[in-house]
Structure formats: structure tokens, C-alpha cells
Hints:
Blueprint: E1 2-4, E2 17-19, E3 22-24, H1 30-42, E4 48-49, H2 56-62, H3 65-80, H4 105-111, H5 124-141, E5 148-151, H6 173-183, E6 189-193, H7 200-206, E7 212-219, E8 244-249, H8 255-272, E9 276-281, H9 300-309, E10 315-319, H10 325-342
Parallel strand pairs: 1-4, 1-5, 5-10, 6-7, 6-9, 7-8, 9-10
Antiparallel strand pairs: 2-3
Amino acid sequence: MHIVRSDAHRAHFPAGEIYMGELVRPFECPERWDYIVAALVEAGLTDVVEPEAVEESVLHGVHETAYLDFLQSAWARWTDTGASGDMIPTCFPVRGMVQEMPIDIDGQLGFFAFAAETAITGGTWSAAHAAASIARTAQRLASAPNSTSFALCRPPGHHAARNYFGGYCFINNAAVAAQGYRSDGAERVAILDVDFHHGNGTQDIFYERSDVFFASLHGDPRHEFPHFLGFANETGEGPGEGFNANYPLPPGTTFDVWLEALEHALARISSFGPDAVVVSLGVDTFEGDPISSFRLRSEDFKVIGNRIGELAAPTVYCMEGGYAVAEIGTNTVNVLTGHLDHS
Length: 343
């Protein structure tokens, strides 16, 4: 299994995030990456590949040009105003307001964001672009039958939509991998999101497309972030009708209940007949995760990888969430070795 990673992620680390009414150290921190790397090395997964830069055509295949232009120029424009702190959105175009992009950088920050916990820093664009490059490189390496690669992306990506960021995500890495497969000739690609939080950004990108099937297992949005997408009745639109499957699950979900939803999602994916599979790998379903409410244990993650491996398709895992730092490496590696055990 190829492991694609880069130290470029360290350029992005905001000073804080808003949580429970306080400015706290971000849960999405560089140590997450370090713990995963240490666990990979201990497991002997050391076939490390440096990423090649993702093509603009692939990025523009999943994100709007104005949004990408904003991300790339935001920090320079922000500091040109005399601001020196991290960029935190404070004003949003909610219902009843005009949905038109402002000229002012502070207005654009709110226009392109959907959550106030995610800040932009001086290194955000370079780190996010590197993460997308990691996803694209890993996808290329997992093109042969039964081949598998792991894209150790940071920042994560599944909350980033066509034209907005949030949930620690800026460029949608899983969407980049799926679009990369399509650009390389795959007719059908499936994305399976096993993160605790709904992959709202991925859903948004592919909601009207029939070439990419999206399935997400996640905390019920009535209780959990991102709250406003991820319901079971969201099944796609237009050409995409029937190609989106959500499995919202209640707080306290245990592995037996979670696994039943996974089996249903895998059956849908198998019926779709994908040429390749992209997995949004969040391990924040773990019972000890500080910002989730599911009850999966470390040994359960091996079963997850094993079941995904039974699809017997070229597969790329893109790292998403997981915030119980001491266990994130173990749980991530358990998924990957579970997949390899099946292969």
C-alpha cells in the first residue's frame, strides 16, 4: 500500500477555534498527522510517496473558480487591510439576504464560509493545495485492480463544497480523488464517507451527477454538525437522483448498528458497479473521540477495512476526521490493515 503524505500540512494551524463559547486550541491539530505516521511506521506501512501537484483542471472540476481564487488570495488581501490575526468569518448571507459576493474581504470571508469555527491562516492555501495534491497522487497510485493507497490529507476535505469552506475543510480531497479517477477514464466512481460527521461538501459537489455515487454514514444532523445536510431523504437531484445515500444515526450508536448501515451502503455501492472507490476515512466514530457521540472501539476499525476491501475495487483512502489524538493512529491503521488482510 502506497502512503502519500507531506509535511506541508504544518503551514496551517490556526491559533484557536470557537467551541462551547470559548476560543480553544483547535481539535484539528498537527499532532493528528504525527500520531498517524507513527502508527503507520510501527505497522510496517512505510511505502511513502511525495505528492505531485494536482492539476488546475481537476480542482476546477469540483470547486467554482471564484471560490478557489478567494482561497488563494484571501490571506494577502486580509493582511493588506492591516489585520494580523487569523481570518474568522463573522457575517453570513442567511435566508432572506442577497446571495451576491461582496467586494470587501471580510464580506467575502462570510460569503464563502458556512461555519465560524474554521479559520484561515497565512499557510492555509499551501496546506490545502498540498492535501489535494496528496489525494490526486494517491488516486493515481491506486488505479490497478485491487490496488489500494492512503492519502494522509491534512487539512481534511469532506465539508468543503463547490463554493464554501468550514468544518476544518477548504478543498475537498475525496472529491479531487473521485474527479481524478473520472479524468483518467473511470466511468463510475463511488465515494464512501465513514466520518462521524456528514460529508456535506462532497454531497453538494456530486448531488446532480450520476457518474459518482455518494454514501455517508454519520451522526443525525438534528443532533450533530453540520446540522443542515445529511438527512435520509436527500437522494440526489436531476441526473443525480438516486445516486446519493445518507445514513443518519443517533447519538450513542454502537458498532452493531453502525455496521448494519455500512452493509447497506456497501450493497448500494456494489450494485452501482464502480470502477474505483474513494473512502473519506474519518475515525472520529471512536468511543473516546472528544467531539462525537458514537461508540466504536479500536478493534471495530479492522472490520470496517475488511468489509470495504471486499468490494475488490481500486481504492484510495483520504484522511478526514478523528480527534482522540492518542488513538487516531491505531484506529486509522486498523482500517488500512483490515483492508489489506482481505486483499
